[in-house]
Structure formats: C-alpha cells, structure tokens
Amino acid sequence: MQESRSLQFVAALPPASSDAPVPVPARNNGFMTQHEVQVQHAQPSVGSIAAHRPHTVAAVVSDLEPDLDADLDVYEEADGVGAQLPQNRFLDRERSWLAFNERVLELAEDPNTPLLERANFLAIFASNLDEFFMVRVAGLKRRIATGVATRSASGLQPREVLEMIWARSRELMARHAACYQEDVAPELAEEGIHLVRWGELTEKEQARLFTLFRNQIFPVLTPLAVDPAHPFPYISGLSLNLAVVVRNPISGHRHFARVKVPPLLSRFLEASPGRYVPLEDVISAPAHLEELFPGMEVLEHHMFRVTRNEDLEVEEDDAENLLQALEKELMRRRFGPPVRLEVEESIDPYVLNLLRRELKVSEAEVYPLPGPLDLTGLFGISRLDRPELKYPKFVAGTHRDLAEVESASAPDIFAALREHDVLLHHPYDSFSTSVQAFLEQAATDPDVLAIKQTLYRTSGDSPIVDALIDAAESGKQVLVLVEIKARFDEQANIKWARKLEEAGCHVVYGLVGLKTHCKLSLVVRQEGETLARYSHVGTGNYHPKTARLYEDIGLLTADAQVGADLSDLFNRLSGYSRRETYRRLLVAPKSLRDGLIARINKEAQHHRAGRPAYVRIKVNSMVDEAVIDALYRASQAGVPVDVWVRGICAVRPGVPDLSENIRVRSVLGRFLEHSRIFAFGNGGEPEVWFGSADMMHRNLDRRIEALVRVKDPAHRASLSRLLETGMSDKTSSWHLGPDGEWTRHAADGDGQQLRNVQEMLIDARRRRRGKATP
Questions:
Q1: Tag placement on the chain: N or C end, fewer CB within 10 Å?
Q2: Full-model pTM
Q3: Annotated binding residue at 487?
C-alpha cells in the first residue's frame, strides 16, 4: 500500500507487534560461516568503484547478520497431520485460465461498466485468447505430437484437455461475438458511435472511402494468386485476410487469391463523423475488389484469420551466444504451425476446405464467427475521446512521504529514505514521482557511484532507460540485467539492451536456463566516509506506461539488510556466486518455495497451540502443487486461508475435510491486479512479504524471483488491511467454488452494489487531496 501509517477506508487492525527477530542460533548456509558472511558484507560490491576514495559500509556488522530462519527448518516438511490428500484435489489450469477470461468477458457484458470500457474489455478478451492459443494450446499440441505430454495435475489426459479447450473456447468466442453484436455495438450507436458495415454506408460515405482506398490503401495491397505457378502463400499469425474467388471470363476457370489486410493501418476507418467501418469492409467492397482484380469476375470473398504457435524454444545450454540464438528463434516464430482458424460463419464450404487443407488445420480448430473478426480492433474505438463513456479520470499523486514541502524543487528522495522506508501502491501512488524519480535522481547525483537494475519489460521511450544511459555517460558504474526472453517483448528488449551497451552500461542477460523476473534497483552512494545503499523492490515492471494501469506494490528503502541482499543477488546475476540464503529476501529457484511452505506449515503449529494463525495470499496465479498441498494441510489443521487470485487457480476450496477453511476470491476492474503479497499470523507477530513471484512452476523453478519481508509494522498493517478488504464479503469480487466454477458477487441481498476495492482506493487518494467523489 502507499501509506506508511494507515488507510482510512477500512477498520484499523490491532497494533502490530514488534518485528524483532527471535534470538536463535544463526544457520550455516552450507558453504560459508556466519563470520565469513559478516566479513563479506563489510565492503560493498559495486564493481570498479573509485578505489582511491575511502569508504566503509554505513551499517554495523550486526545489522547485516542474516535474518534468523533456523527455526523454520523444522517446518519445511509437513508433519503429516491430517487426512491423506485426495487425487482429484487440483483444478485444471487450462480450464481455470478460460474461466479467468470469462470473468473479463463478464465485465464487457455488465451494463454497469462504462460503455467504452466494455468495448475495451471485449478487446482484452480477444487479445488474451490470442495469446492463450499462441502459447498454451500450441505448447500442448507440440507435447502431444512429440509424445512427451503427460496427465495433468487435475487428472486429465492431454487429449482431454485439448478437447475441453476447443469446446469451452468455442462457447466463449460465440458469447463474445454476441456481446458485441447484440449489446455493445447497438449501445455505442445510441451514443453516436456507429460501427457499421459497408452496406450500411451512404453513397457519399462510400465515395469518400473509395477515394481513401485509391490513394492510401490500394498501393499497399498485394493480391496473391493460388495456381500451379503460385503456391499457397504463407499466412502470418494473427493477420486478417480476405479469401477471394475470381473467375476468368474467357476460360471460365475459377481461381483463389488471398489479400492480406495491412496491419499498420487503422482497423476502423471513419466514414463520416461518428461512423466507423472495418478496414476489411473497405478493401472487400465490390468496386475495390475489381480494382485489385481487373478483368476478372469477383465471385465471392470471405474473411479468415490464423493463430500460430508463437512460443519460443531457445536451447540455452547449447547456445554460445544467447542474444544471437534468440534473434534466430524470433525469425522462426513467424513460421510456427497453425493452432486456430477463425472464419466468417458465411464462408463457402469449398473455400473453407481449401483453407483447412492448405493450413493443415483440423475441423475442431476451425471457429466460424459472425463478422467482424478480430475484435482486438476495439482497442482503437475504446480510445475515442468520450470521457463520459469511460471510468472517471484518475491522476495518481505523489506519495505523501515524497511530496514537496514548502519548496519548488524536487524532493530529495535519498533524504526521505534516510528518515523512513516508503511503501508504494501503484497506480494510486505516482510511479513517475517515486521509482522513476529515484532512478533519475541517482543518475544525476554526483555522489552516486553505482546503479544496478533489472529490466524485464519497459516502454520504447522509457525514462528509466534514459536515466541509466545518463548515469553511465556521467561515469557511474551501471549494471543492467535485461531479460531478453520476456515473452513477446524479446525484440524490444534486444534493441534496448544494445542501446544501453552503446552508452557504456554493463549489460548482462541473467543466468542460463532461468528468466530474471525479479524487480530490483540498487543505488550505491558516497556519504562522507561511508557508502550507503538505497534499494527498490517491487512487484511490477519498470514500465512507466503500464504503471498507470497495473496495480503493484513497491518498497523504497535505505535498509542495510535489503541493500546487502540486493548486492549479493546482483553479484549472482552478473558474476559467479552460489549464495542461496538472504536476510530479508526469499529468492527463487532455491529458497522461495521452501520458505513459503515452511511458513504455511508453521501456521498449522501456531493454530494447534492456540496462537493466532492465518495465511493470506494475493497472486496472479496459484497452480504450484507443493504450495497448494501446504495450504490444504493448513486448512485441515484449522488455519483460515484466504487466496486472492487474478487469473489461474488450481485450488479447490470448500471441500469437506480438505479445504473447508480456504476461500478464493478474484478481483478484476479498471486496473490489472498485479501485486503478489503473502501474509502470515505467525502466532501474533504478523509477517508480510511481497515481490515478483506467482505460485507457478515457471516462477518457482525456472525464474529468478524475489520476495522482500516487510519490516515496518505500519506497512504490514496497511498490506494486511488491503488483503482483508479484497477478501471481504462486502467487496465486489468473484468467488470460486469447489467445482471450479466462479460466481460473481457484485451486489448484496438487497440488490445494492458492493464496494469496489479499486474505486475505494482511488477515492481514498482523492479525499486526501480534497477531491473525493460524491
């Protein structure tokens, strides 16, 4: 949460107890003694910092001793108390993902959602489903084809999962199209935004678009014939295409041709003020097709769209240069096999059979739909300047601990952090005046000697990248770990990695076989005779644009333990280090899963002993079987377990003798819930962690992830109140049942709308600035 003191919109929790560690013997991590750990951290690791400048670490050695987790060792394995866990205890992850996208669709179907936001949710649904087919369905098909697919944790055979996906996605796509055709498009028309087809245009509008076609569209079109001299053309993934059948009037022979709809042109063209027509309708107008095929008789035309396997497979163990290997794989991605064929439901059977045969698509992979296809084009419509049809505008403010006080100059973030930690909650707290300002100040401060930074995703015009370049060009040591394997951002990340290298930054690409997904910044600053370390640990990417749309948590701190942990972790990422244990961090793939499971198991012991015990988790996805089994055993022991999940969830809550003490909720809205928070009752001394990791195999086994322990009692209380609010029955959310079905709870028994946690947080910020909504 933003506030380091309290939140005003929920009842206050009892005062948090002391955070002092229990005095137990320090654990040996297996390769270094406690004394050696202390000596190692007596000097910072900042590369070739100007050695002639005298310095010491601005913390006594005792401050840097590892947090004492030895008492958790006995909880790493479950104690066996409780009934045997049943075989069918996991929900299917693919079905759960489809259920998540159904919740997105429900927001589009909801008449209480602002109209242009409904159009936006229709586009999000379509975009989500595209990626699901490109990655999950494609991967499943590949595993079946190669014979390596195994029964899923839910007990389904791979073929059963695939058939379920085909059937369920067909239902959802039909419902999606109906929502557009029957609800959203007609209601947009009532508001003066008409999404029309070519036949609905007036003669004047058609004439205007004919001129546009001749001047701006026709020159970029390339009709591709199919005959013995012209093989069937390659159809790129997610492209929109016209299948055109023409006849030679002299020979009488029929021919097939394909015309690709140019992806760089606007999807909806304005025929006249407030009236928009799909680009493909303009291209396929009779007079326009005659321009494309002069002298031929155009018999029919149909729209179609192909989704291909666009996941990447880079054999890093055999790749001498990861950057070159990934660039080669990006080229291969364009030619992945098809996994879905969308066609207009009016398509001629002959044309459909031709497409199926040439694309090698099964009947089950064909999706006939009413036009227009590809409703991701509604993103453009949703951006129309009609604020009355959108969520009320919200502009994030500066966190009050970083706000300017009686000064026209920017606040000194380092001075603020020396006073106290700052807990940020984006987008309610401004990213630009907190994290971005932290890095920009570090780049220009002459006393800053080094900056170390992870970048997973960022924007093309990122001020974060600019700040790192400025820092390197001013002579600072700048280490940037760019994750070039971030899915669908690979090409952009390669571009920015090279730009950073050219500016003099030390750019590394992480560890072989692992993605670096943790969100970390470390600044080393000369302060008199000492070096101080300032840190940022977050749940979201360093992406200024998505920071306005994604809900994330971040901690800015001058804490010596966190700084030492980040130094160690960056050394592991950039050099050779076998460190696996930290003071205030849990780091995947070594300690994060075991650390969380040990804490979940410990809650069961607290409950049996009559001490306060609970588990509250907020994540994007919850599918890791080991973590879920720990939650089941905690529930069997009587521990109340709350799981707030945005997307996939394999937990089966509410099952007698297994999970009757587990509740699962989901919140979707104007912001994408993205933070990951883990809270434990801990016998009356609450413990709260947050960070980058979701509870998935890829996060816990194949990524570098980091969680940070929240030390400030007020910060712990704020995050605990956030979790309580999200799980409250008085808050609008979806509830998961033991059968895997989600039920929306948006109104109470009297039909009154339940409170929306995101709107509550917005209103709390507005009240603080004197701009609360009525």
A1: C
A2: 0.86
A3: yes
